[in-house]
């Protein structure tokens, strides 16, 4: 990208934002109370409230449920296929690769002894994020993993699993005592306590931001590239825009896989660190 | 230049402000995420991960076990083959020995039978010779008696009145004995 292109992107971002009472890019990336099938129309979703708390069914909720249904369908089918025969057939082969990958390449090396207990959480998180990421790549759909509320919730789950796993394995006091490394000078202890306690929260915070930023950035860049055509008001720019958008899309396929892996891997790593503190 | 884009994006996010920004956490969505994820965790944990992981474990154990068993069976087969070969060699030796033994036995038997039959034949021949000798002697005696009788008869015919038959016979016998002694 040369500096001119950069300038154009920046301008387009600013323009689209200032125009039409808000940025259309953000409307696409963000949550909303309708399913967007433009130019074919929109499907508005119901508004729900409990005790004054807004729990409307939004675009991201719909796609999250879609991912949940898909996950349930796919993996119960896989489980059923194992009942018939231990030899995997058809799609079971495909999903088994991921399951064995999570077990042997993520959970086993990072958690070590007693990793089986955390496998259900890690597998669910991995496939939930993976399905969400890939659902977001389908036209007219929305990426619920690019919503900070979703990623923050997932990171909170990881946080709870990490702390509960650590406390269960080392005892309540043993766990918090084990957080501070051995051989720290006494005068450093107050600082270390603060640092380590902060560290507990920065880990899941980083998890949430990483997933959210990665899943959002790709989409924003694609929209920005497409918007170049309208900003410059020329068909001539479209081959460049579409070509680069396609390239970013290809990159996003990679990122979708990678972020599911990274979220699970880091969660597993933190669980391992909490459970086996001696390392 | 990436920084420029970054700041442009940030400014948009920031300028949204209020409750509708990209970085604002929507409580309702967080609620639905929690609910969905927990239900998913429960359902998949119970109906998918548990059976799948158990099946995978079982399969891995089965593979490990069958490999170990195959190794064991191979060892066993090797041992049995060696044993078979050894027993085969032993059997061959045994059969050779038996053949050798029976051959010797047959040879001995043959020799014995031949000897026995030879002896028997010899004995038969001897018996026959003795019988012949005996018969010859008997015939000779008969002849002697007949000749003596004939001679006595003839002599008595000739010397009818002169000689008493009994006395003459004794006389002739005496002579004959003397002749046979000579």
TrEMBL record, chain A:
Keywords from the named record: ATP synthesis, Cell membrane, CF(0), Hydrogen ion transport, Ion transport, Membrane, Transmembrane, Transmembrane helix, Transport
GO molecular function, one term: proton-transporting ATP synthase activity, rotational mechanism
Recorded topology in the membrane: Multi-pass membrane protein
Matching SUPFAM superfamilies: F1F0 ATP synthase subunit A
Superkingdom per UniProt: Bacteria
Subcellular location, principal: membrane
Pfam families, per the entry: ATP-synt_A
Role summary: Key component of the proton channel; it plays a direct role in the translocation of protons across the membrane.
Recorded family membership: Belongs to the ATPase A chain family.
Full protein name: ATP synthase subunit a
Taxonomic classification: Bacteria, Pseudomonadati, Ignavibacteriota, Ignavibacteria, Ignavibacteriales
Gene responsible for this protein: atpB
């Amino acid at each position: 990208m040369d500096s001119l292109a950069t300038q154009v992107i920046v301008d387009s971002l600013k323009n689209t934002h200032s125009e039409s009472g808000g940025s259309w890019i953000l409307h696409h990336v963000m949550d909303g109370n309708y399913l967007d099938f433009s130019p074919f129309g929109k499907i508005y979703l119901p508004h729900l409230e409990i005790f004054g708390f807004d729990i409307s069914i939004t675009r991201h909720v719909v796609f999250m449920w879609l991912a949940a249904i898909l996950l349930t369908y796919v993996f119960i089918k896989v489980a059923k296929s194992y009942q018939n025969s231990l030899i995997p057939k058809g799609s079971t082969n495909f999903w088994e690769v991921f399951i064995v990958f999570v077990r042997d390449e993520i959970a086993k090396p990072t958690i070590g002894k007693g990793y089986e207990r955390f496998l259900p959480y890690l597998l669910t998180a991995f496939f939930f994020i993976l399905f969400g990421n890939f659902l977001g790549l389908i036209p007219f759909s929305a990426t619920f993993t690019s919503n900070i509320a979703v990623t923050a919730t997932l990171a909170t789950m990881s946080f709870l699993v990490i702390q509960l796993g650590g406390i269960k394995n080392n005892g309540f006091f043993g766990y918090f005592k084990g957080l501070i490394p051995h051989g720290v000078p006494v005068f450093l202890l107050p600082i270390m306590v603060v640092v380590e306690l902060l560290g507990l929260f920065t880990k899941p915070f980083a998890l949430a931001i990483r997933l959210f930023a990665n899943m959002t950035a790709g989409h924003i860049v694609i929209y920005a590239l497409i918007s170049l055509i309208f900003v410059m008001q020329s068909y001539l720019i479209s081959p460049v825009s579409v070509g680069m958008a396609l390239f970013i899309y290809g990159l996003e396929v990679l990122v979708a896989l990678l972020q599911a892996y990274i979220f699970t891997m880091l969660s597993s790593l933190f669980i391992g660190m909490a459970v086996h503190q001696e390392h | 230049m990436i920084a420029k884009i970054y700041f442009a994006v940030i400014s948009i996010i920031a300028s949204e402000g209020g409750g509708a920004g990209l970085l604002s956490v929507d409580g309702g969505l967080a609620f639905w995420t929690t609910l969905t994820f927990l239900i998913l965790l429960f359902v998949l944990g119970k109906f998918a991960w548990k059976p799948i992981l158990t099946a995978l474990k079982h399969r891995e154990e089965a593979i490990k076990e069958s490999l170990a068993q195959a190794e064991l069976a191979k060892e066993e087969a090797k041992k049995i083959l060696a044993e078979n070969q050894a027993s085969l060699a032993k059997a061959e030796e045994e059969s050779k020995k038996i053949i050798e033994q029976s051959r010797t036995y047959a040879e001995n038997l043959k020799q014995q039978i031949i000897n026995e039959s030879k002896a028997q034949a010899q004995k038969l021949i001897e018996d026959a010779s003795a019988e012949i000798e005996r018969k010859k002697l008997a015939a000779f005696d008969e002849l002697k008696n007949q000749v003596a009788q004939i001679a006595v008869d003839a002599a008595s015919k000739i010397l009818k009145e002169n000689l008493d038959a009994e006395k003459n016979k004794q006389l002739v016998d005496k002579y004959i004995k003397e002749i046979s002694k000579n």
